[in-house]
Description:
By secondary structure, this protein is an alpha/beta fold. 27% of the residues lie in helices and 29% in strands. It is built from 9 helices and 15 strands. Strands 3, 4, 5, 6, 7, 14 and 15 form a 7-stranded mixed sheet that branches. The protein has a 6-stranded parallel sheet with strand order 10-9-8-11-12-13. Strands 1-2 form a two-stranded antiparallel ribbon.
Amino acid sequence: MSFKALVLSESDGDVSSSLTELDAADLPQPENPVTVAVDYSSLNYKDGMVLQGVGRLVRNYPHIPGVDLAGTVVDSADGRFQLGDEVLCTGWRVGEMHWGGYAERARLNADWLVPVPKGMTTREAMAIGTAGFTAMQALDALESVGVQKGDPILVTGASGGVGSSAILWGAAMGHHIVASTGRMENAGDLKALGAAEVIDRNEIAEAPGRPLLKERWAGCVDAVGGDTLAHVLAEMNYGGAVAACGLAGGNTLTTTVIPFLLRGVKLVGIDSVMAPYDERIRVWERISGVFDSERLASITTEVALADIASRASEILAGQTKGRTVVKTGA
Ligand code: NDP
């Protein structure tokens, strides 16, 4: 059986993509293989890096990118999954080390698959995808270290996938969300998602200058890193917590230990890629408890498989808004 896939190849360090017809026999053979007819994938920051060959995330070409996928089981060697089951996959280095979701078919290790939650379509699962999953992991982590409903939670990189999702989930969970954006023209949209306040990211973009600044935040979902994270650490309330999720603004962190020692601030690392199965099920359950189809649709843009490669530079430049789903079939 043949299927379409976006295949990356590499020549002298340059990565290029082409829509290619492959045969089922070309698919990899992992342990406990389950073959999925992919309905949708999505565009994450990491997909942008893979499509542009940034960061050497992919070591073996030809390669099929797409860190997320959702679809229907069409073949299964694993008793946990039957033909016709709707499943999703995020992380596990699919789309970077293993072939991913930018194809009509994928063959994956059953351990990497999660059932699509009841009441959610495969398209909605991908509108959430890695970014929405990470946003809920971050909020869950903040709550587990004491952040309470109503406390001010700062969300950085608010117009992006992780940021928009953190606003949607956080507001629905009863938190007071303050969105930080470099695109103040999006303020109205961010408020419509549930942000109680919107601030210009320039307020928090510089290194803080002093170890402690005026207390502002009980929690922070940080998708930006770099000097923004250093600044936010200096502004945390006594006992506050930051969930460090991303590096859209830089991967270095120059700070002092003072916020940790004098204010008991907590810095919690968030990794969605290798999250264990039980955590995945719990996080998806929490998402399905708060997600609202209409609001999710308002942050979702759909593109065809043939058009996704052109979006890579936009997401790396911080120019996309919300989430982009990739329709794999016609
Ligand atoms: P997006 O590109 O969708 O969003 C990032 C947002 O950050 C942009 O929309 C922009 O928002 C802001 N931004 C971009 N560039 C800069 C800059 N130079 N300085 C300050 N702000 C900037 O990406 P995602 O939301 O998908 O991912 C965000 C980050 O989280 C990435 O670094 C990604 O690698 C990471 N990530 C980590 C995961 C994990 O498991 N830990 C999982 C998923 C993502 P605005 O215009 O509103 O300011």
